[in-house]
Amino acid sequence: MHVSIRTVIEKILQNEEIQEESMQAAVGAIMDGECSPVDVSSFLTALAVDGETETEIAGAAAAMRKRSLKIQTSQTGLIDTCGTGGDKLHTFNISTATALVVAACGQPVAKHGNRSVSSSSGSADVLEALGVDIGLSAEMAGKCLDELGICFCYARLFHGAMKHVAPIRSELGIRTIFNLLGPLTNPASAEFQLLGANRDENAERIAQAASRLGTKKTFVVCGNDQLDEVSLWGKTRVWEVTGNNPPALMEWTAADFGLEECHPDELKVSSPGESADVIRSIISGQAGPARRMVVANTAAALLCSGRARSLTEGVRSAEEAIDRGEVRLLLNRLADWSQSHQDSVKGG
Questions:
Q1: Rounded CA gap, 273 and 85, in Å?
Q2: Is position 112 within any domain?
Q3: Taking the CB of the first residue and of the last residue of the chain, which one, N or C, has fewer CB atoms within 10 A?
Q4: For residue range 170-226, what is the model confidence (pLDDT) as tens digits?
Q5: Per the annotation, where are the binding residues for anthranilate?
Q6: Where 5-phospho-alpha-D-ribose 1-diphosphate is bound, by residue (predicted)?
Q7: Please, which residues have CB within 8 angstroms of residue 49's CB and are 6 or more apart in sequence?
Q8: Model pTM?
Q9: What are the binding residues for 5-phospho-alpha-D-ribose 1-diphosphate?
Q10: 68 in any annotated domain
Q11: Domain residues for 27?
Q12: Using CA atoms, how far apart are residues 13 and 342, in angstroms rounded to an integer?
């Protein structure tokens, strides 16, 4: 077993604190291809059983950031909308639809995401179903962002070292620390982030890790302690992180958005194709719970980035962008642009 992996696992077994540097070394060794599949699966399982701390998450994220391809762009004030997944609710891709609406509102978006591991559809899966080429190189993604105000950062491409982990994660089929890292490792170094976590405890740990890593402003949200998005049922807990300051906790309900409540069963899909159909219906102007969810999450993103002064103002901006057809036009432009540029790398 690789020495850095052994160090972490032994500390877990002895119930000792794992330092940020130890996690950075272990994840770095994994991503550099120095560890066997048994090393990696043992490491991921041990962390999942023990429960990853904010220190461990920050150390692992730092290792990933160091090895990531970087997007160069003239756009400033970027935001990312990225969730951990793993909530088992099988909702359509809310954060991906949100990214499109946010960008149509004039807020530049570098959407980070991956294929599904444990849900019905990952962001990469649904964008493909919507006709977007997800395999743009870092250079082309930067140009796409420059020209359209939005790009997709396919995690398996931008974090090439993930090739040593992806098959093992798929085979394990459980939530691992890498679900928590995706939101913290945006390749375009987005200054603003609306990050979702599937449980309150995970959201708080990600917020603490974001504070350790530093951010202009990040909202880490968990809907009703079950959804890695803003929810319109129950309460959404929001940890606001500015700079390296400790997270500040807020709570939102549907009433704070001026929107009608909905139920998670109204948002379920079983495939990327179904999720794409839901997103097409939303951006074509169809009313209903799916649209309200996207509008609410867009409002949160616009508030985070300073594009809106309140949640209700953000709701109005989102609804206007949809109703004017600007989101539908942006998606069509993104699909056409990505398909027409040949400097792409196909990822599986």
A1: 18
A2: yes
A3: C
A4: 888 777 888 888 889 999 999 999 999 999 999 999 999 999 999 999 999 999 999
A5: 83, 114, 169
A6: 83, 86-87, 91, 93-96, 111-119, 123
A7: none
A8: 0.92
A9: 83, 86-87, 91, 93-96, 111-119, 123
A10: no
A11: 3-51
A12: 50
